[in-house]
Fold this sequence. Notes:
The structure holds two protein chains of two kinds.
Chain A: E1 3-4, H1 7-20, E2 26-34, H2 38-53, H3 61-64, E3 75-84, E4 89-95, H4 101-116, H5 152-158
Parallel strand pairs in A: 1-4
Antiparallel strand pairs in A: 2-3, 3-4
Chain B: H1 8-25, E1 28-36, H2 48-53, E2 67-73, E3 91-96, H3 101-115, H4 124-137
Antiparallel strand pairs in B: 1-2, 2-3
Protein name (chain B): Signal recognition particle subunit SRP14
Organism (chain B): Lophiotrema nucula
Family (chain B): Belongs to the SRP14 family.
Amino acid sequence: MPNFETSTEWYEQSSLLLKARPTTARITSKYSVLKPSASKVQKRQKYLDKRKDAPKPPSTSAEASTSLTNPEELVATFTLKTYDPVSGTCLQYETNKAAEVGRLIGSLGRLSKHMAALPEVAEDLSAPAEGAGISTPKLEVDGDVRMSSPAPGAEQKAGGGKKKKKGKK
Amino acid sequence: MADNHLSNDEFFSRLTDLFEHSRKKGHGSVYLTQKRLSFDTTSAPPSPTKILDDPLWDTHPENPLPVLIRASNNSSSKRKGTDREDIDKIKLSTVVQPEQLDAFYARYAEVGKAGMSGLKKRDKKKKKKDKKKKKAGE
Lengths: 169, 138
């Protein structure tokens, strides 16, 4: 159950999984707000105390102290999980940044096109997505999808002649 | 729950309520799921021979298929010694037709961004100041 470091990687692998198993794979996203556990509160308290006691470096103290003030602060996370019950594949990505939500839901939208069996390339290109041998890098993406290199393991899973779309520069 | 798919509009208003509900509660989870809607009463299921002939039949269906979207919260039961209350499970679902996907996801993103208010906001100020300091220091 890989937990990806970047949403880009998660998106790439998920889209491969959806290409291979469009009917059975599903994407679950969870927004969860939790109260921190007792040990977490303790840890934070300890950290704060340490901060207080330590001699403050002159300039940074004012800003640094704003980052965490309340040890009981809630823990909010947004987790994306692509799961295919047939092969048992499960791909995860987790974030706690509000700034990412819009982009992540955007990639959910793009992945839903695999589910709907629509061509993934934007409609206005009017080119058939499949069989267009030289697939142009026109995935309507924020430009970050092609940054990381494709992982060979998942490529094999995708099977079929659909690998062309990946691995271009 | 299978038969009670909401219309997309109603789904969004209920989803907003669901997020609001969890925000008021202060903690808890909201689950969002999406999958291909492969169950269709109007057409016959693919025959076994068809599957045998073409094991990857589902990777290239003749027509675009709708997508099923589900949303739910966590139910919980009252428990002594904690502040847990009895909370019923709320389940929502809707079917998005392929041609409406773009519009749906645009709204979905809006609702999601508004609803997930607990996540960390971007801290622009701090970063900028840090950068300036670094430059000045060098």
